[in-house]
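Please fill in the sequence for the structure shown.

STRUCTURE ENCODING:
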């Protein structure tokens, strides 16, 4: 069956009343979460995973709900960037450069509408790229053996910090911590207890859903308690929208270019939405007519927004086809799928076509829903920023705690969740990223299994890890992923910060 026929079957799933309801709920919740400075899509998805489990949703419904939250949070991140000059998350940083100056000129509504349209274009084009590229990459991945998969997992860890990562060494420390936690429990091959200390709760290992909610949601609560006294945030007033078809045509080329660059950034290991938005903005500023970039040019809003939303959809390509997340949020989504006994990878397209193509079709539907929601309802989303965090964060914590307890029914798991929250808070204070910890927990068991399988087949000969051109190529890319951030990273970070230094407060 061809790609078009499979996609049409996916639309049958995506347009069912149940799927449309979850896409709408996810879009609204994601936008609300994205609008809150500091939360971001990874935290939003992590907070709502327990809710999806406690409601007993199917894998397809769960993934539609959470990918809609993901897309919605990417949309919502630009609200605080434009109105407060505070990025909702790191990829929205470049939107501040022209979005906030537009708001200061009394064009806040136009800036928000521009970003919504550009986000839709970026996500739409990137989802088309996902439709084209994912099946090709899945077929190619069928050639992978245990040696190639072990090299692929190593590549995932090596490039996780990204080209713009601050400290590659700290990223590796976080990944090693995740791999260590993954070894807790009874070894499947030998039956030996590892780091359980005869505690029955540790015999089956550490549940990464509990770890995810603790590391992201609970640690975020601690940061809110520390950094926000409880007052709402003062913002630029929202004017009446005056966007014409001419204005839309003006931003269209920048949006399309940004979408293509963002999609490539999302698919490439170690790039991601932050680099996608930066490259899109930088190239648009360099190759367009000068305009008023940095002073409120609409193209300076459209390009990075299309770039970061294109990268968000692009990051789903390696997750669905290889089982390797392309971003922090897709790492959280991967954990959810594994918990539902769905194993992302090349066989997913053969074994669960309804799930894969239903979710891809739902991305098209969800982005249309987001566009229709974000322009007329932006005033409602904006009002959320005036609500003091002291009222919002207890609700977030309550949702996370009730969700975890409803899944496991164990009070001990709540203690584990709080423990991981404290760990996440400490790691963030010393600037050790959390995503590598989660990725280590997720990929650790599969990485160990493939290493053992490869060594068994070769009678313990370690050279088996370099027995094919494909595995050698993966190791070369992994080495480049470790070295490039050290060389290129400081230059890119300096360029990304430099324009922001001159931005009005």
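FILLED IN BY: designer on duty
SEQUENCE:
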């Amino acid at each position: 069956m061809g790609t078009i026929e499979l996609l049409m079957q996916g639309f049958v799933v995506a347009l069912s009343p149940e799927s449309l309801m979850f896409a709408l709920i996810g879009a609204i919740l994601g936008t609300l979460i994205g609008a809150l400075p500091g939360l971001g899509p990874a935290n939003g998805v992590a907070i709502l995973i327990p809710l999806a489990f406690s409601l007993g949703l199917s894998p397809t419904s769960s993934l539609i709900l959470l990918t809609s939250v993901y897309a919605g949070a990417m949309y919502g991140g630009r609200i605080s960037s434009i109105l407060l000059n505070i990025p909702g998350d790191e990829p929205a940083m470049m939107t501040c450069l022209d979005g906030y100056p537009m708001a200061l000129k009394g064009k806040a509504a136009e800036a928000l509408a521009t970003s919504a349209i550009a986000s839709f274009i970026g996500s739409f084009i990137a989802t088309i790229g996902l439709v084209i590229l994912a099946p090709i990459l899945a077929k190619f991945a069928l050639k992978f053996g245990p040696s190639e998969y072990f090299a692929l997992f190593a590549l995932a860890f090596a490039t996780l910090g990204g080209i713009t990562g601050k400290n590659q060494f700290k990223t590796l420390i976080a990944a090693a911590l995740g791999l260590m936690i993954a070894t807790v429990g009874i070894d499947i091959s030998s039956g030996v207890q590892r780091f359980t200390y005869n505690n029955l709760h540790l015999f089956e290992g550490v549940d990464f859903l509990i770890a995810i909610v603790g590391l992201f949601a609970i640690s975020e609560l601690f940061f809110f308690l520390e950094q926000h006294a409880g007052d709402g945030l003062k913002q630029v007033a929202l004017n009446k929208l005056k966007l014409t078809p001419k204005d839309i045509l003006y931003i269209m080329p920048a949006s399309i270019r940004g979408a293509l660059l963002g999609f490539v950034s999302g698919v490439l290991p170690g790039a991601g939405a932050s680099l996608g938005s930066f490259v899109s903005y930088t190239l648009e500023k360099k190759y367009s007519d000068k305009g008023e970039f940095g002073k409120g040019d609409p193209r300076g809003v459209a390009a990075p927004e299309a770039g970061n939303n294109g990268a968000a959809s692009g990051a789903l390509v390696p997750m669905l086809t290889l089982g390797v997340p392309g971003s922090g949020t897709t790492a959280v989504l991967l954990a959810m799928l594994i918990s539902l006994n769905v194993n992302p990878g090349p066989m997913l397209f053969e074994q669960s076509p309804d799930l894969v193509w239903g979710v891809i079709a739902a991305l098209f539907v969800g982005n249309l829903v987001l566009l229709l929601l974000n322009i007329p309802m932006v005033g409602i989303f904006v009002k959320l920023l005036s609500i003091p965090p002291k009222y919002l964060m207890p609700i977030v914590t309550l949702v996370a705690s009730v969700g975890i307890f409803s899944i496991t029914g164990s009070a001990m798991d709540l203690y584990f969740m709080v423990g991981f929250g404290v760990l996440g808070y400490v790691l963030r204070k010393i600037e050790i990223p959390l995503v590598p910890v989660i990725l280590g927990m997720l990929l650790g068991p599969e990485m160990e299994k493939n290493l053992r399988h490869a060594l068994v087949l070769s009678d313990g000969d370690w050279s088996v890890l370099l027995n094919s051109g494909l595995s050698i190529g993966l190791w070369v890319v992994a080495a480049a992923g470790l070295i490039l951030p050290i060389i290129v990273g400081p230059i890119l970070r300096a360029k990304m910060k430099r324009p922001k230094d001159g931005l009005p407060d």
